[in-house]
Each structure stands twice: as structure tokens, then as C-alpha cells.
Amino acid sequence: MRRVWFAVLALVYLEHLELSMKVGTAPICAYGQAGCHILSLADFFDRVIQQSSRMHGISSDLHSEFEQYFFPSKNSIGKRKCHTYGILTPDDKENAQRLGREELTEVILRLLEAWGDPLSQLYWSMSQDQNQDFNHYSSNKALEISDMVHELRDGVEKMAEKMKLLGVLGNTVSYISPESLVPSSALSFYKQGEFNSLDHHDLLYCFRRDSNKVKNYLQILKCTTLPGLDC
Amino acid sequence: MSELVWQHETELVTVVTVQKKQVKRGLSVIICARMRRDLGLVLLLLLSAAVESNSISPPGKPVLVGCRSPEKETFTCWWEPGSDGGLPTMHRLYYETERLEGVFECPDYLSAGRNSCFFDKNHTAIWVYYYLTVVASNALGNATSDPFKIDVVEIVKPNPPENVTLLLEGREDSSYLHVSWERPHNTDTKSGWVTIKYQLRVKQENSNEWKEYMSGTQKHFNLYSISPGVTYMVKVRCRLDHGFWSEWTNTTYVKVPNYLRNEKPFWILVSTLSTIPFIAAACVLVMKRKYVKQYVLPPVPGPKIRGVDFQLLKSGRSEDVISAFIINQNFSLTTGSKDQTEEYLIVTENENGIADPSNSQKRKKSLIIPGFCLDSEPPILNDCEKSGATNQEIDNYVKSLSNMKPSQLPAQEQQCNFVNADATGHQTSNYDNTTQTFANSSYVDIQRHMENIQEVDVKQVDYRRVKEVNGDNILILPLNSSGCIDVQRPKDNISEDYSKVKVVDSDNMVFLQKEKVSVDTSCIEKGIYYTNFALQKPINTSKVEVCTEVINSEYVDTFSAPPLI
């Protein structure tokens, strides 16, 4: 009986740990002790970067699966655009460094905001698809990244608030949803008729790229804000 | 001939030049006679030369083999040219991007070697697709390769780490290998543009298997499980973000020196020397085991009963055992020595009430038998009584007694009068505290101590019985044989009762405590009864009531007196 109790308690504890790991928004120093703010911001960064890295990894896997099953030819030319093409993102190191913290944060938030809905719809669409064997695991992954996008967005927002409090971030960061920059219905952007696997593939490729951007921008943001051992 | 520096073309030129010279010579030498034959030969030669130069074709299709970016800031692409078609062929690379409109040519063909194109920082864009093509062209035509699509993020493969150093650290018996290295110099981790992760692998020289360890972002690693005297081989590699792994570094060797073997003989010596005293101690113990046993496990002593022979008991002869017990029994006779003078009668189980003879004189108490001695001669002090009894008191008592109704006493053969001046109200001073009260006695054990008076009977132990109780707390103790008290039994079958003895005053007198009011109504009628006789105080109450009462108590054997009234 004791073993059962112990196992149950251990499970509960582990679950709590895992849950607390996922959130990534609660600071460690809750009472604002001296010298504590910087530390908690570093933790913020670490968690956010960790989550974005994980999100990118899952989206890469999903995209590779699609490629493997549906598109054996790698070098299909098709010039395709992503629905986030309107959001201007720095495409090399110098441009990113030239951008500054506030704009960089804004770009990150815009990107994350733009992907919230499409991923949910992707998940919904994938779960409706007939090919059940393939889609079972893929739809789980799609659900996961859909959740993670929302969490990451909240996390980055809170982190930006904290940075504003600490004074490392100016107040020009705005949270305007990028409706003007992004097509209102993202899915229709990808749709070529019925929203099918082809569109899934395109969408996933775009998301894979954007998640990589987000992760990289966050890393740059961290190293410009908190230059330390990891940078 | 053209002035191109292509290798095969220069060869052709040389050949043709040689042939031409030969032709000229031939013509000059054989001019007349063999004009036609030589001319034919010459023509033949020219034709062959012409035929050779006629296997020219447009170039073959080149193939793009791959691209690579070592630090995610620049990248290089390589191609494989096809056949050149016999003519010098040029290759050009053209690219298009997602972002920019138009077709661009490779900015740098040289930096990366032959058949390559190097894109520097200004021309490199991340997260952007490049569509590359190579065009081979010669005098006869062009050939275009298949398009090659790349995103720089997907072609990242860094250079291997640099300066791998191995250090042996730690103490001799717990040493470890400290491996350290540096990042490839062209990667920029400081700005956070890339994140490098390392991996190393280790192999013992004579083993075939590599052990791999992940080092994360650290540039050092500690190997703890190393054996002395073995040479280890270590390699390190790295990768950026999610890109490809770099090549392994060159193998670094380290040999772990031998520590333990030098120390072995020393430890063997120490261990053998330390075992010698233990062996010696063991031998001593074995030889002297009897003493050791006695010391460590002493024999358990058997039971000891004084006067009892344990062996006798063990032999099991019961008569002897019992006799042994009996012999040892030593009931102490409850008499004192003859020296002791006891004038009074002590009724006790436990104690020896020894009083001075002098005290006894004061003892007046004695049991009163009202009526008992009335008939007879005037109260005499019994020889059991103390000689010190005052006559006056006796007289008083007798008088008082005479006032009372005589109690009916059963006729007794020998009755002694007891004169007791005991009136509790009387002279308390006469009475010592030596009167002893005894709470519980069923049988009155009278101790008769030796007195100086000669008439004292020397009976040692005697038991008396209460004959009658007439008044409160009056106990009649007839003496026998001494003439004092006769133990007499009533003629009638009166049940014997027991009373509690309160006070023993003299040899012959014992005061009983009246416990209850008896059934005897005579007392009640009389209204005289004695109720409160304090145990501890010998004389408190003043009344000496004569009441024929039957004291019923369980302690002293009393004769229930018939109602006297």
C-alpha cells in the first residue's frame, strides 16, 4: 500500500514540475529582493528560448513527415510565400543587431500572434482528414505546437513587461495585432481549393521557418540584454 | 588558334604546329620525285588534324553538388562540371532569391577554389530561398544545370573545434581526465546568433569502440572512469543550432601513468605485518582458552539458602529437607529476659511492651469486673496486678462498682476480683502512656513479664480470654492458675464474641473498645453507654459506665454478658 502511495505522490510531484516548466511565465523571485530582478529575467529568457526551441523542433519533425509521405522530390521549385510575408523580419545578423531591442521584441510578438489561428485551424483540419494512420500522431503534434504558440506569446509578452519595468526596454513596444500586415484569413492564403495536405505542407514549412526566426531573435535579444556566460 | 589557356587546346596547337613543320620539311626535301605522294601524306595529316579538332561539342551539363555555411553568415556552393565538349568552357552560376527580383551572378568564384561560388555576408540572406543554376558555356553552346534550392539555415555545418587539450588532474587514486577545447574561430556566439553544442568521443588505444558524450555548450569535459597505464584517444565535434555536425577533430592522445603498481608491494608489506599481531593474539587465546572461558563466561552461582544444603535438596530426600527447614525455624519466644519487669499485661501480637517496673506502679488499670469480685473479698490486687496499684483507687472503683447494679455474672468458680481503679476519668496522670492500645487482637497474647514481685507468676506466654464485658470497654480477663484470672467459660452457651482491645493497662486488665451498641437493651434503657472511647488516648472519657453490654466485635473473644440489669 505504501508503495502505491509513494508512486502516486511521485507522479503528482512530477506532473506539477512538468506543468510548472511549461508555463514559463512565473518569475522565481516573487518579492523583488535586491539583485533578484536580473536573475529572474535570465530565467525568463531561458524558459522562453527553451520553449521556442522545442516548438521549432516539433514543427521540423512534422514538416519532415509531410515531405517524406507526400513529396518525395525535394527540389520542387514552386515559389511559395508565407502568409507572414508582410511582417518585415531581419534576415541576417547585422540587420537583426541593427534593429534594436524594442523592434525586435515587436517582430517576435507579431510573428507569434500571426500564427495562433492558422495552427489551430491546421490541427482541426488535420484531425478531419481521412488518412487516419498518419494523421494520428501528426495531429497530436499539431495540437502541441498550436498550444505552444499561444503560451509562448503570453510568455514573451510578460517578459517584455518585465523588461520595461527593469528599464532595459523602451516603451515603444506596441502590441498591435498585425492585422494590417497579415491577411485576415491566413488559411485562405494557403488554400488552393480544398484545404488539403498540400496546403498543410506549405503551411508547415512556413511555420517551421518562422519558429526558427523567433528562436533566433529571442537569442539575440537575450545576449544584447544580458550579456553573460552563455553568449 | 585561340589564346585560351585551356589545357587541351594548347596541346592541340602544339601538335598542329609540329605537324605543319614536318609537312614543310617533307615538301622541301622530296620536291620533285615524290611530289604527289608527299602531297597526299600532307593532306592526310591535315585532315587528321582537322578531324581531331572537329570533336567539339557544346559542354555537358554541370551538376551542383552542394552548398555549405560554416557559421550561418556566409555560404559556398560547389558544382561538378560535365564534359567540356572539346572546347574551353566557362561556367557561371546564377541565382535568384525569394526576396529580390532578378537573377544574379555569383559574386566570388575564386575564394573557395575551383567550381565553387562563395557568397559573402553581404550576399547572404538567412531564411530566404536561393535558387541556383550553373551554366557551362563554350564556343559551341551552353549547358544549364538543374536548379538547386537552398535555405542557408538548412546547410549549416561548422568547422571542427580547435585546440583540444587533455589534462590529467586529481589525486593519484582518484584522477580524472580534463578535456578542453575552443570553439571554431569563425562562429559568433557572443551575439547569440548561433548556439554551439559539442560532442566528444573517447577510446582506449587497444579497444575498438568509441564512447560518446554530449557536452552541451560547455567547452570542457571531465572523464572520471580512466584506468592507469592506458592511452586514451579523444575527438571532439560540434554543431550549430539544428544544423549538421562538424567533422571530428584530429585525435588527441594521452597516456595515464601507472600509480597503483608502484604502491602495491608497500601495501602488501603493510598488510602482512598488521596481520601478525592478530595471529599471535589468536594463538594465545586458543592456548589459554580455559582461562579465557572462565573470565568471559563465569559460572553462574547456584541458589543459596542459609542452612539449607543445596546438595541435599538435589538429592531429593524429602524428610531431610523438611527437617532442615524445621531446624532452622527459630521461633522467638516472646518473652524477654528475666530482667525485664513488666507489671502489666501486654496484649499484642507484635510488640514487646516493655515498661519499667517503676511505671508499672502507676498502672492502675486493670480490668474491672464489676461484680466479679464484689462477692468475694474486697478487691485485692491480684498477684498479677501490679503491686503499685493504689488501694484508694481500688476502693473508689469498688465503690463505684457497688453503686452499680451488679452485673450478673455467671457463677464462676473462681472469680477473682479485679480491682481497677481505672476510671477513665480518674487520674489520668497516673496512667502513663504506656498503656497500649491494641487494635486488633483476636486472641490476647498476654505477656507476662517478670516482675520483681515474687508473687508474680513466671508464666511466660499465656493466652487469656475475655470473659465478660460489663461496662464499656471493660474486658474481663480471668487469670488462671496464677489466681488472677481464670479463664473460665460460661456455663451457658453463650456465644463467644470478640472485642477489640483498646488498652492494656496492667497485667490483668485490658480495655476493650466498644464497637457497637449491643443488642442488649439494658444499656439502652439505662442510657448509659460508653460510646466514645478514643483508641489512642488511654483515658479520656470520664464515664465509667457499667452497662451490661454485650460488645460484639470480631476482635476479642468476649462472652456476651447477660443483661445485668
TrEMBL record, chain A:
<dbReference type="Pfam" id="PF00103">
    <property type="entry name" value="Hormone_1"/>
</dbReference>
<dbReference type="InterPro" id="IPR018116">
    <property type="entry name" value="Somatotropin_CS"/>
</dbReference>
<comment type="similarity">
    <text>Belongs to the somatotropin/prolactin family.</text>
</comment>
<dbReference type="GO" id="GO:0031667">
    <property type="term" value="P:response to nutrient levels"/>
</dbReference>
<keyword id="KW-0372">Hormone</keyword>
<dbReference type="GO" id="GO:0046427">
    <property type="term" value="P:positive regulation of receptor signaling pathway via JAK-STAT"/>
</dbReference>
<dbReference type="InterPro" id="IPR001400">
    <property type="entry name" value="Somatotropin/Prolactin"/>
</dbReference>
<dbReference type="GO" id="GO:0005615">
    <property type="term" value="C:extracellular space"/>
</dbReference>
<feature type="signal peptide">
    <location>
        <begin position="1"/>
        <end position="20"/>
    </location>
</feature>
<keyword id="KW-1015">Disulfide bond</keyword>
<dbReference type="InterPro" id="IPR009079">
    <property type="entry name" value="4_helix_cytokine-like_core"/>
</dbReference>
<dbReference type="GO" id="GO:0005179">
    <property type="term" value="F:hormone activity"/>
</dbReference>
<keyword id="KW-0964">Secreted</keyword>
<protein>
    <submittedName>
        <fullName>Prolactin</fullName>
    </submittedName>
</protein>
<keyword id="KW-0732">Signal</keyword>
UniProtKB/TrEMBL annotation, chain B:
<dbReference type="Pfam" id="PF09067">
    <property type="entry name" value="EpoR_lig-bind"/>
</dbReference>
<keyword id="KW-0812">Transmembrane</keyword>
<keyword id="KW-0325">Glycoprotein</keyword>
<dbReference type="Pfam" id="PF00041">
    <property type="entry name" value="fn3"/>
</dbReference>
<keyword id="KW-0677">Repeat</keyword>
<dbReference type="GO" id="GO:0043235">
    <property type="term" value="C:receptor complex"/>
</dbReference>
<dbReference type="InterPro" id="IPR015152">
    <property type="entry name" value="Growth/epo_recpt_lig-bind"/>
</dbReference>
<dbReference type="InterPro" id="IPR036116">
    <property type="entry name" value="FN3_sf"/>
</dbReference>
<keyword id="KW-0472">Membrane</keyword>
<dbReference type="InterPro" id="IPR003961">
    <property type="entry name" value="FN3_dom"/>
</dbReference>
<comment type="similarity">
    <text>Belongs to the type I cytokine receptor family. Type 1 subfamily.</text>
</comment>
<keyword id="KW-1015">Disulfide bond</keyword>
<feature type="domain" description="Fibronectin type-III">
    <location>
        <begin position="160"/>
        <end position="259"/>
    </location>
</feature>
<keyword id="KW-0479">Metal-binding</keyword>
<feature type="transmembrane region" description="Helical">
    <location>
        <begin position="266"/>
        <end position="287"/>
    </location>
</feature>
<protein>
    <recommendedName>
        <fullName>Prolactin receptor</fullName>
    </recommendedName>
</protein>
<dbReference type="InterPro" id="IPR013783">
    <property type="entry name" value="Ig-like_fold"/>
</dbReference>
<keyword id="KW-0732">Signal</keyword>
<keyword id="KW-1133">Transmembrane helix</keyword>
<dbReference type="GO" id="GO:0046872">
    <property type="term" value="F:metal ion binding"/>
</dbReference>
<dbReference type="InterPro" id="IPR050379">
    <property type="entry name" value="Type-I_Cytokine_Rcpt"/>
</dbReference>
<keyword id="KW-0675">Receptor</keyword>
